[in-house]
Amino acid sequence: MNAVTEKIEDLLSGLKITYRKFEHEPVTTSEDAARIRDKDISTGAKALIFIADGEPILVVVPGDKRFNTKKFKLDFKIKDLYMADAEKLKEVTGLIKGAVPPIGKIFGIKTYFDQSFTNKDTVAFNAGSLTISIEMAAADLITAADPIIADITND
């Protein structure tokens, strides 16, 4: 198990949050993750690292949605916003694309969740590895991640 997975489990255990961890073949896309987890793609929490006015942030959207960068920039008064490349992603998280979990505070960065997570029962996400997923109640993920919640997807 890697350090990021351990940090997630420590955080969840410390908050007395129930979750299910499971191992599977490597997955890098929301579609593959949904298939391997045997869940609808909308239950996936897609974690994306962006650079917003020079600072890394974590943006989390459902697996079936796209992040609305224009709306986000307007709503949060951000001038320069771009997705982190593989090198920057590794620098910020120590991870590769597809392995980033939806909990930015374990990396010391601000996290933004799409508001649709407040209406979901369960969510699943890659937990610091392409081969480890965690499934848990969406409300518990919101508690653990303590994100800024906003309308940040294309409807």
Q: Which features would summarize this protein structure in a list?
A:
155 residues; YbaK protein; 3-stranded antiparallel beta sheet
Descriptive account of the structure:
It is a single chain. With 155 residues, the protein is of the alpha/beta class. It has one domain: YbaK protein (Alpha-Beta Complex), CATH 3.90.960. 28% of the residues lie in helices and 28% in strands. It contains five helices and eight strands. It has helices at residues 3-14, 30-37, 69-75, 86-93, 138-145; strands at residues 19-23, 45-52, 55-62, 81-83, 110-114, 122-126, 132-137, 148-150. The protein has a five-stranded mixed β-sheet, with no helix packed on it. β6 (122-126) and β7 form a beta hairpin. The model has no long low-confidence stretch (mean pLDDT 95).
Provide a brief overview of the structure.
The protein has 5 helices and 8 strands. The chain is of the alpha/beta class.
Order of helices and strands: HEHEEHEHEEEHE
Trace the largest sheet across and list its strands: 4-2-3-5-8
Q: Number of folding domains?
A: 1
- Global outline: globular
Low-confidence stretches: none
**The CATH top-level class label:** Alpha Beta
**CATH superfamily, please?**
YbaK/aminoacyl-tRNA synthetase-associated domain
